[in-house]
UniProtKB/TrEMBL annotation:
Signal peptide annotation: 1-22
The keyword Ligase belongs to this UniProt entry's keyword annotation: no
Subcellular location: Membrane
Alphabetical keyword list: Calcium, Calcium channel, Calcium transport, Glycoprotein, Ion channel, Ion transport, Membrane, Signal, Transmembrane, Transmembrane helix, Transport, Voltage-gated channel
Species per Swiss-Prot/TrEMBL record: Grus japonensis (Japanese crane)
PANTHER family: VOLTAGE-DEPENDENT CALCIUM CHANNEL SUBUNIT ALPHA-2/DELTA-RELATED, VOLTAGE-DEPENDENT CALCIUM CHANNEL SUBUNIT ALPHA-2_DELTA-1
Name assigned to this protein: Voltage-dependent calcium channel subunit alpha-2/delta-1
C-alpha cells in the first residue's frame, strides 16, 4: 500500500513541477527534465524492488546454497523434449478420436431400425436421473435405467463411474420416442470403445459422442450438473449447439441474414424475428462468416459491420445487440433487400469462408418474388436462399 502511494506521489510531484514552471517562467531545459526522469527512474526501481521482495528472495537463496544446485540448461534439448511430448499427446488423442469415429460409423451402418421395443430392451444410465429418487427408474417404455456406483474422482473432482457411460437427452426431446430408443440401442456399443481408449491412454478425460437427435453419450459416467444453477432448474443443454459439434457437423459458410423491417412485422412478429435471428447466430462457429441486414424501402446493415465478418463471440455479440434495436416501419421492397444481400455475399475483397453461401430471410411473407434479382446475381444457383 505504501509502495503504491509512493508511485502516486512521484507522478503528482512531476506533474506539479512541470505546471509550476510553465506558469512562472520558461519551459524547463532538457538537462532539468532529464534529472527529473532519472530521479523518477530511481524511485520506480526502488518501488519495484520493495514491492516484489526480490532482494529478500535473493538473500534466501544465498543463505541456503547447500539445498540446491545451479545447472545450465540446453534450450534446444528442452524444446525438442517438449515437442516430442506434445506430438505424442496429440497422436494419442487423434488415434482415440479416429477409432471412436470409425466404430460409430460401423455400428450405425449395421444397425437395424426397429419400430417397437419390448420392456427392458434398452438399458442405459440417464445422467439427469435423481439419484435420491428410487421411483424415477424404468419410467419409459422399452428402457431400463442403470444406477452406477459412483466414487469421488480426484482427476475430475466429482463423482464418476468408469464402468458405464452416461446419456444426456435434451429437455425438449422425448426419451421414449422411437428414434431416441434406436439411437440408444446402437450407441450402447460405443461404451466398449470408450473403455478401450482409456486403457490405451489413461490421461484421456471426457469422451463424448453427439448425435443429430440431440442425444449425447459421454464417458466416464457422472451425474449431470446444472452449473448455471438457474432458479427454474430447466436444463437447456443441447449437444447440437456446442461449438465442436457445429464445426464437425457443418461446412464453413458465408451467411447473410436478411431481416424484413417493414411496418407489417411490428409487434409480436418482430419480437419473434429478433429471437429467431439471435438463435440463428448461436448456431454459427468461428469458421463461419456472417452479417445481418434489415430492409424495408431501403436496405442497410443493422450494425457497424459493412461486410461479412467472422462469427466469433465478439462479432456475434455486436450483431445481437444491433438486432434488438431493429424497428419496423415503411413498406417491403424485396428487390432492394436481395440486391444488397447478394452484393455483400459476392464481395470477394474481404475475408470469408468461401464455401457454402446462404441468405436467410426472416419475414412475415409477401407477394413479391424478386425473380429478376435472383436471375441477375444467382443464375448459377451457387447461393441458397432460405
Amino acid at each position: 500500500m505504501a509502495a503504491g502511494w509512493l508511485l502516486v506521489f512521484s507522478l503528482t510531484l512531476f506533474q506539479s513541477l512541470v505546471m509550476n514552471h510553465s506558469s512562472e517562467g520558461p519551459f524547463p531545459s532538457a538537462t532539468t527534465i532529464k534529472s527529473w526522469v532519472d530521479k523518477m527512474q530511481e524511485d520506480l526501481v526502488t518501488l519495484a524492488r520493495t514491492a516484489s521482495g526480490v532482494d529478500q528472495l535473493a538473500a534466501i537463496y544465498l543463505k541456503n546454497r547447500n539445498l540446491y544446485t545451479v545447472e545450465a540448461n540446453n534450450p534446444r534439448q528442452l524444446v525438442e523434449i517438449a515437442a516430442r511430448d506434445i506430438e505424442k499427446l496429440l497422436s494419442n488423442r487423434s488415434k482415440a478420436l479416429v477409432r471412436l469415429a470409425k466404430e460409430a460409423e460401423k455400428y450405425q451402418a449395421s444397425h437395424q431400425w426397429r419400430d417397437e421395443f419390448g420392456n427392458n430392451d434398452i438399458i442405459y444410465y440417464n445422467a439427469k436421473d435423481d439419484q435420491n429418487d428410487p421411483e424415477k427408474n424404468d419410467t419409459e417404455s422399452g428402457s431400463q435405467r442403470i444406477r452406477p456406483v459412483f466414487e469421488e474422482d480426484p482427476v475430475f473432482r466429482r463423482q464418476t463411474s468408469y464402468q458405464h457411460a452416461a446419456v444426456h437427452i435434451p429437455t425438449d426431446i422425448y426419451e421414449g420416442s422411437t428414434i431416441v430408443l434406436n439411437e440408444l440401442n446402437w450407441t450402447a456399443a460405443l461404451d466398449d470403445v470408450f473403455k478401450r481408449n482409456r486403457e490405451e491412454d489413461p490421461t484421456l478425460l471426457w469422451q463424448v459422442f453427439g448425435s443429430a437427435t440431440g442425444l449425447a453419450r459421454y464417458y466416464p459416467a457422472s451425474p449431470w450438473v446444472d452449473k448455471s444453477r438457474t432458479p427454474n432448474k430447466i436444463d437447456l443443454y443441447d449437444v447440437r449447439r456446442r461449438p465442436w459439434y457445429i464445426q464437425g457437423a457443418a461446412s464453413p459458410k458465408d451467411m447473410l441474414i436478411l431481416v424484413d423491417a417493414s411496418g407489417s412485422v411490428s409487434g409480436l412478429t418482430l419480437k419473434l424475428i429478433r429471437t429467431s435471428v439471435i438463435e440463428m447466430l448461436e448456431t454459427l462457429s468461428d469458421d463461419d462468416f456472417v452479417n445481418v441486414v434489415s430492409f424495408n424501402n431501403n436496405a442497410q446493415n443493422v450494425s457497424c459491420f459493412n461486410h461479412l465478418v467472422q462469427a466469433n463471440v465478439r462479432n456475434k455479440k455486436k450483431l445481437k445487440e444491433a438486432v434488438y434495436k431493429i424497428s419496423a416501419k415503411g413498406i417491403t421492397d424485396y428487390k432492394k433487400g436481395f440486391s444488397y444481400a447478394f452484393e455483400q455475399l459476392l464481395n470477394h475483397s474481404v475475408s470469408r469462408a468461401n464455401c457454402n453461401k446462404i441468405i436467410m430471410l426472416f419475414t412475415d411473407g409477401g407477394e413479391e418474388r424478386a425473380q429478376e434479382i435472383f436471375h441477375k446475381y444467382n443464375e448459377d444457383k451457387k447461393v441458397s436462399a432460405i
